[in-house]
Amino acid sequence: MNLEEITEVVISLGEPKFRASQLFKWLQSGVQSFDEMTNIPQTLRQKLADISYIATVSPLRKYVSQIDGTVKYVYELFDGELIESVLMKYEHGYTVCISTQVGCRMGCKFCASGIYGLTRNLTASEMLAQITYAARDNNIRVSNVVMMGMGEPLDNFDNSIKFLKLVSDENGPNIGLRHISLSTSGVVSGIKKLAEYNMPITLSISLHAPNDEIRNRTMPVNKKWNVDELLNACREYQKVTTRRISFEYALIEGINDSDSCAKELARRLKGIMCHVNLIPANPVKENTFKKPDRKSIIAFQKKLESLGVNATIRRTLGADIDASCGQLKKKTKEEIDCANIC
Ligand code: SAH
Ligand code: SF4
């Protein structure tokens, strides 16, 4: 709930309005129960517990990288559904990568998150709880957020917007919108709607292919909105927000990693103020996609740079704790299903 919604509840309970701000602050600090709210009278705490609950995430698995301290969580939600979340340490602070849906219905061929399709949307508070839990668990302040875990944020538009407002609220986690990235597989209707909010977040586009022929093979969303429509929406978005756009490009051996792909990509991105993030594709058990060797990845980056496109190769964090983008949840679910059957 945002402050206005909490105020309505407080007033309906016959309580003074200022209690709403107190409650809002507590909820945004990641408390797990009303009893932790020490400046709220016991009677009100009880009334609240009778009519409501605090959305929390419970860690079912936690893996800590011995190499770089990256922490990966598999959380269980109130209804038993599982999501994953990652805490990463960079020089400039801590970043949390959050999930926005249980599963995903976009069906990208290289991604483990979509294998079971979409189960349900996350609420804004379930998104927020992934940040507050990681902050409390590690006794740190989270300075950056990336909406790059399981799920397609623009397919859960209203909750994603509500989350962005809550997480950047100065009475809450107060994480500036400039420190938040939202990644989309290319839901053009959502990009257009997002432009209307004109938020200073970083928009990340999972492009992964320079043309329709390749993108149709790996990303079904391209059949609804093709590369031209997607890039035009990006141009329009940039006109409104004046923000640099980030393009994600997962390099898959023999599919999208050729010299001509790099040339075509550079040509298509002309005129867009952007940055390309090259990600060596993570192998997923269910498909045969492989990442190119290091030399080819560097050659792809150099080609883009030589054509005037700013490109970096994404560093791998938490390499020893396995799995990303839905793989950890899937592995945990399989373990649980197996234990139940056994
Ligand atoms: N649904 C949104 C955000 C979550 S996915 C989106 O698709 O943008 C976060 C990023 O990981 C996306 O760029 C996605 O394409 C990429 N990704 C998914 N599976 C991957 C894999 N096996 N290897 C490399 N990148 C992958
Ligand atoms: Fe969904 Fe993103 Fe995975 Fe595609 S890459 S299936 S949009 S989570």
Describe the SSE topology.
Layout: H1 3-12, H2 18-28, H3 42-51, E1 58-64, E2 71-76, E3 82-90, E4 93-97, E5 101-103, E6 118-121, H4 124-138, E7 142-147, H5 157-167, E8 180-184, H6 188-197, E9 202-206, H7 212-218, H8 221-224, H9 227-241, E10 245-251, H10 259-268, E11 274-280, H11 294-306, E12 311-313, H12 327-341
Parallel strand pairs: 4-7, 7-8, 8-9, 9-10, 10-11, 11-12
Antiparallel strand pairs: 1-2, 2-3, 3-4, 5-6
Helix pairs in contact: 1-2, 4-5, 6-9, 10-11
The structure holds S-adenosyl-L-homocysteine (SAH) and iron/sulfur cluster.
The site of S-adenosyl-L-homocysteine has 16 residues, from strand 8 and strand 10.
Characteristics of this structure?
342 residues, alpha/beta, DNA polymerase, domain 1, TIM Barrel, ten-stranded mixed β-sheet, two-stranded antiparallel ribbon, 12 helices, 12 strands, 20% strand, globular, binds S-adenosyl-L-homocysteine, binds iron/sulfur cluster
